[in-house]
């Protein structure tokens, strides 16, 4: 192995992961449990929504013309001919000139009526209703297909399904929703310095933080993490675990080892079992990242430190997940903020800086890159492009929110 | 039942739900699956992190003084006395004046050394290392307990656990994490106009959209939704389903019926089986909301239309969930944006307006409140306080993001 890495730009690394991305796989899930999934097919309205002219208030169905000029002082007097029932169309009931019918919210507007007066603006006196406010045509009525027309595309494939989307999918009759299958992502921890979370580290040892961080990230991103534990820094152990993980997963992340030996071992084993495509990316932190492929499956060697691994996860692994999930519009949350101070940066590498964000103002958290405390005390990252020598105080930046 | 509701301000409704909130329940979950859960106990570092002076780069451990004045033209010449192994403290190896030792990223700084020179700034010639850059004291070294001191509080209870938090919890030795138990929330759909998602609505009927929307929201918010289906608008059916749901759930949401009859039935049944505390809130949309209590469990009657139910969910139900989950800082995402136009509002009620947000600019989506399409085409809500007559064009607003 060479002492120095052959560094590629972030754009090239991303192009590589997109090129080796497994295709989109789909499955159907019940609409009640579709939250956060990615729609994998367009959805059209199978009927008009609403399917009938519908009152949006409790009140009286009227002919708008009959209320012209009506007010508190001179109410319109209408003869009430009946009550509309919920859930069905009353074909016998019709509203003629000078008459009205009581209608509940959601009721079908009866024949002859073209508007609804809210009950708050009426008064009943036996069969007569005093209307104290004029209404215009179709006021307080949701017209047939005003929301969605039958056959209209309501959602496009690639959308992350929000709770409201789930409601509208139900309204469109999608009891079973076609969504992207959750990619199974294997997490293998490597590095002789690593000990399990349950152990008390001896001098020189650190607990495996990456596995839990990666598992949590992948779970929130809509994947199924599969944690394989800590593997001894021996070639046979690496090969054995990869031989097991690659067939069981769609993507494999090797993570945890921070030493060059460990990274070299990772690269050597990937090269033996498959191909190393990238070893070294012009990104800070995260330079010593490996992208490879074994049996058509993407395999990553992530940097050992959690803060570096996280940046690589966001900048390099996420585009792969987006492709596998068929995401059409980035689901990464971002916010615009004004930078409090100048941040100088080294040209030639994309640099990610942790920031706090408060009321639209982003303050960089400096400190050694290996610190965990700035990782949990920050609100997100800002990216300084490779071509830039830094960002200026007062400039508007896009913060990649945690 | 009275024809008009006894409307209470939003603040009173929220105070009521907080008063009847069940207490926080906790459980422990493995750190690998802790994503998105709410921490229910403070977490302290059980050891110093790192537990030793740790190199953050691959390079040579040196005495900083030995590199003073070193540069590309006149490198410092140091005698390399050995290699540091990963994962253990090499007690025999020490760096004396004029010497250095190879150290991998994550290695323990040997006795005598006080800094690390990156390998990129060195050259090897047999046992001699040419150092071409001066380093200062502790440069490229993470000092013992520089990240967290043993006994230091790393996380406070009530925090929503991010992926990075999960990593740091692992680093702190939290293999099992004490988190808030997920509240079980029952969802009962009511209203004679409702048909299941699988049915094709007849005139007057609508599909039950609320159940799927509520289930998705609750799932994303960290609750366990339990969907009971559509209940016929009969007193016996209401009582039977509540008698089943109340013992099975921590909170029950009755939703779906939009007519006054349906709401009256809901209120009457809650009053019979328990207490109605609020019937009518000064909120738009969402006025005809019911808050009650059966067998010490909060029971809500939500408005029938999904758009209204969603506003009540965010404004009234969410504070209850926050209390039950012990959330210390709101987890509702918000963004600041500039309003494009004036929005007039009626004093005396808190009004929620759907907006699109693009590049820091919020544009209200007007249209009838009963529309679903503005619900899915908007990015969030802005709230106009009850005391305000509206919001002015150009003002900075806080958008409650979907």
Describe this structure in words.
Two copies of one chain form a homodimer. With 402 residues, the first copy, chain A, is α/β, with parallel strands linked by helices. The first copy, chain A, folds into four domains: 10-23 and 181-325, Molybdenum Cofactor Biosythetic Enzyme, Chain A (3-Layer(aba) Sandwich), CATH 3.40.980; 26-47 and 155-180, Molybdopterin biosynthesis moea protein, domain 2 (Alpha-Beta Complex), CATH 3.90.105.10; 54-142, Molybdopterin biosynthesis moea protein, domain 3 (Molybdopterin biosynthesis moeA protein, domain 3), CATH 2.170.190.11; 334-401, MoeA, C-terminal, domain IV (Beta-clip, Beta Barrel). Helices cover 21% and strands 31% of the residues of chain A. Chain A has helices at residues 10-19, 163-171, 210-220, 235-248, 260-273, 306-325, 373-377, and strands spanning 26-30, 43-44, 54-55, 59-62, 76-83, 99-103, 115-118, 122-125, 128-131, 141-142, 153-155, 176-180, 184-190, 194-195, 206-207, 224-231, 251-255, 275-279, 283-284, 290-294, 297-301, 334-339, 343-344, 350-358, 361-364, 380-384, 390-391, 396-401. In chain A, the strands form eight sheets. Chain A has a six-stranded mixed sheet, with no helix packed on it. A six-stranded mixed sheet of chain A has the order 16-13-17-21-20-18, sandwiched between helices. In chain A, a hairpin with a 2-residue loop joins strand 8 and strand 9 (128-131). Chain A is elongated and about 90 Å long. Chain A starts with 9 loop residues before the first helix and ends with a strand. At the A-B interface, helix 2, strand 15, helix 3, helix 5 and helix 7 of A face helix 2, strand 15, helix 3, helix 5 and helix 7 of B.
């Amino acid at each position: 192995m060479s002492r120095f890495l052959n560094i590629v730009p972030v754009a090239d690394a991303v192009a590589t992961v997109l090129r080796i991305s497994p295709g989109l796989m789909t499955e159907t899930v019940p609409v009640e449990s579709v939250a956060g999934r990615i729609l994998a097919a367009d959805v059209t309205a199978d009927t008009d929504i609403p399917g009938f002219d519908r009152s949006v208030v409790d009140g009286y169905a009227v002919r708008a013309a009959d209320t012209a000029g009506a007010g508190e002082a001179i109410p319109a007097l209408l003869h009430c001919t009946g009550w509309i029932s919920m859930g069905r169309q009353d074909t016998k009931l019709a509203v003629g000139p000078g008459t009205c019918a009581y209608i509940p919210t959601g009721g079908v507007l009866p024949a002859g009526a073209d508007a609804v007066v809210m009950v708050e603006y009426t008064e009943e006196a036996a069969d007569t209703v005093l209307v104290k406010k004029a209404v215009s045509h179709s006021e307080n009525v949701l017209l047939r297909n005003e929301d969605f027309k039958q056959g209209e595309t309501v959602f496009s494939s690639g959308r992350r399904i929000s709770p409201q989307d789930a409601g509208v999918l139900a309204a469109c009759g999608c009891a079973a929703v076609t969504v992207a299958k959750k990619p199974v992502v294997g997490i293998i921890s490597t590095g002789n310095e690593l000990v399990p979370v349950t152990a008390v580290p001896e001098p020189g040892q650190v607990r495996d933080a990456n596995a839990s961080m990666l598992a949590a990230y992948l779970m929130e991103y809509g994947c199924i993490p599969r944690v394989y534990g800590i593997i001894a820094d021996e070639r046979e152990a690496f090969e054995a675990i990869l031989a097991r993980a690659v067939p069981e997963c769609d993507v494999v992340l090797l993570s945890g080892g921070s030493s060059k030996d460990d990274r070299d071992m990772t690269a050597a084993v990937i090269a033996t079992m498959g191909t190393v495509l990238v070893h070294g990316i012009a990104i800070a932190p995260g330079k010593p990242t490996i992208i490879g492929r074994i049996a058509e499956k993407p395999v990553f060697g992530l940097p050992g430190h959690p803060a570096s691994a996280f940046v690589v996860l966001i900048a390099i692994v996420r585009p792969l997940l987006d492709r596998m999930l068929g995401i059409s519009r980035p689901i990464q949350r971002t916010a615009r903020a004004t930078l409090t101070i100048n941040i100088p940066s080294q040209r030639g590498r994309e640099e990610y800086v942790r920031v706090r964000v408060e009321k639209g103002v982003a303050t960089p958290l400096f400190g050694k890159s290996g610190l965990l405390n700035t990782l949990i005390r920050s609100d997100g990252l800002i990216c300084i492009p490779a071509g830039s020598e830094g960002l200026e105080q007062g400039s508007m930046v896009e913060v990649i929110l945690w």
